[in-house]
Amino acid sequence: MDNIYIEYNFTVTPKEPATEILIAELGNVGFESFVENENGVTAYIQKDNWNKTLLEAIFILNSDEFTITYLHHEVAQTNWNAEWEKNFEAIEVDEMVSIRAPFHENPNLKYDIVIEPKMSFGTGHHETTHMMVQHLLQLELEHKKVLDMGCGTGILAIFAEMRGAKPTDAIDIDNWCYLNSIENVDRNHCEHITVFEGDSALLRDKKYDVIIANINRNILLMDMEIYTNCLNDKGVLLLSGFYKEDIAMIDAEVPKYQLELETTLERNNWVALKYNKL
Questions:
Q1: Which domain holds residue 263?
Q2: Structural domain contains residue 112
């Protein structure tokens, strides 16, 4: 007998970064699948796991920064794989990096990353992930020790190893991301990546040559001192997950930590910054 699902259609304004935060929170209360669209996201949960008060625990629904409305109804079981394949297209970065699912044809670029994002984040489609890949393309990573903080699917850690980094730590606070990163690390035959579930508390007494932090502005500001304390002299800090308008707020903090801005990438008003530790 097919399972019965509850489908929620969320309209989100502004869409980013609220949609990513919403998906993460919904995943924590039992939602199993998500399909993003131009207005927000459609989310599904099994009826057996649903109750009328389920969304009371979703913090972002009560945030003053975003307007989120929703409708819901029952649906029959959906073929999630077919739905996901329909909405996930392979992409290429600077004609050098392909990011694709196993069912996509290999375009035979220099670097080929194969992922199944499931309920995690970081398919390469989001502007911030795309720009972080561009930053990593320009770095000398051979034998560098790297941290991918807020690793999502593990895509940036995987790419860092493809470019010679070792060892690399990949950390995410979300259990789905943690498990998905482990799967994707194995799928791409990486041998020098260790995936951890947790937050910046795991960084005590750690040191890195390159730190990648593609999270959100508030967490970046809160953890900036921790990141820089973990960064070796002349190390590189890559920051993304925020808008062009937020650069001033980030720049106001970095002089405290002997960081110098070298490169800014911008894509659809999202930015990714490269800082060097002096």
A1: 125-277
A2: no
Residue 257 lies in a domain: yes
Residues 267 and 179 in one domain: yes
pTM: 0.74
Specify if 103 maps to a domain: no
pLDDT of residue 1: 37
Evaluate whether residue 96 is within a structural domain: no
Band (234; pLDDT cuts 50, 70, 90): very high
Question: Three-class SS string for the chain?
Answer: CCCEEEEEEEEEECCCCHHHHHHHHHHHCCCCEEEEECCEEEEEEEHHHCCCCHHHHCHHHHCCCCEEEEEEEEEECCCHHHHHHHHCCCEEECCCEEEECCCCCCCCCCEEEECCCCCCCCCCCCHHHHHHHHHHHHCCCCCCCEEEECCCCCHHHHHHHHCCCCCEEEEECCHHHHHHHHHHHHHCCCCCEEEEECCHHHHCCCCEEEEEEECCHHHHHHHHHHHHHCEEEEEEEEEEEEEHHHHHHHHHHHHHHCEEEEEEEEECCEEEEEEEEC
CA–CA distances in Å: residue 269 to residues 14, 42, 138: 13, 24, 21
